[in-house]
Amino acid sequence: MEIQQIVSLLVSERDRLSRAIEALGGGAKRRGRPQKNASAAPIHDIARPASLPRKLKRKPLTAAQKKAHSERMKAFWAQRRKSAKS
To answer: What are the Cα distances from residue 74, in Å, to 11, 39, 68, 71?
Structure first.
């Protein structure tokens, strides 16, 4: 084999390996918001594994509970302002 032919084979092999590494590694990591990818499936379409528990929804507060919470928070912030002045 001639040297030129060997070099061209090595270059083609290097290019093939570089493409394979890039495909497996996903290329360079980039910071920030990812670009929109039309071919990727939306997150909500992916099936949730059975091992993960479902998120529990909170029960809505009654009017009395809201009022009690409001009063507790008013007292809390009043105490904070009072201690900050001292």
So the answer is: 73, 51, 10, 5
pLDDT at 5 over 90: yes
- Please state the domain extents for the chain: 1-27
Distance CA 59, CA 65 (A): 12
Cα–Cα distances in Å, from 61 out to 54, 73, 81? 21, 15, 27
pLDDT digits (tens, 9 = 90+) for 13-40: 999 998 888 888 765 666 778 777 766 5
Please give the model's pTM, rounded to 2 decimal places.
Answer: 0.35
| Opening angle at CA 82, ends 80 and 83, nearest 5 | 65
